[in-house]
Amino acid sequence: MTLLEMSVQYADSAALIRARIRELRAEERQQEDPEAARGLRRRIDELTPLLRECRELAVLTARYYDRSY
Questions:
Q1: Which of 22, 59, 67, 68 suits 42 as a labelling partner, its CA being 20 to 30 A distant?
Q2: Whole-angstrom Cα distance, residue 67 to residue 23?
Q3: Cα(34)–Cα(52) distance, integer angstroms
Q4: Residue-level pLDDT at 67
Q5: Is 33 left (phi over 0), alpha (psi -120 to 50) or beta?
Q6: DSSP track, 42-65
Q7: Residues ≥6 apart with Cβ < 8 Å to 21
Q8: Spatial separation of the C-alpha atoms in residues 21 and 26, rounded to whole Å
Q9: Whole-angstrom Cα distance, residue 25 to residue 51?
Q10: Residue 57 above 90 pLDDT?
């Protein structure tokens, strides 16, 4: 597998994580139980660094061999 192929996979993973975070935020807004809302917020907080890492790795692997990068 090439770095460019890995970049596409990281970008796809980031898109999936971003979609899941949106779903969790919508569910959190509708949640009436404070404990359940707190659990959803905790899950969002856990997914956020993963999203950032996937985005960064997508860029890094796509541009790894660019001299200017």
A1: 59
A2: 39
A3: 27
A4: 84
A5: beta
A6: HHHHHHHHHHHHHHHHHHHHHHTT
A7: 44, 47, 48, 51
A8: 9
A9: 15
A10: yes
Report the 10 Å Cβ neighbour count for 58: 20
Tokens of 33: 């139980």
How far CA 38 is from CA of 1, 26, 54, 56, in Å, comes to 40, 13, 25, 28
* Two tokens, residue 20: 């899941």
d(CA 49, CA 26): 19
Residue range 11-54, pLDDT digits in tens: 999 999 999 999 999 999 999 999 999 999 999 999 999 999 99
- Say how far apart CA 62 and CA 36 lie, in whole Å: 39
Instruction: Read off the DSSP letter of residue 41.
Output: H
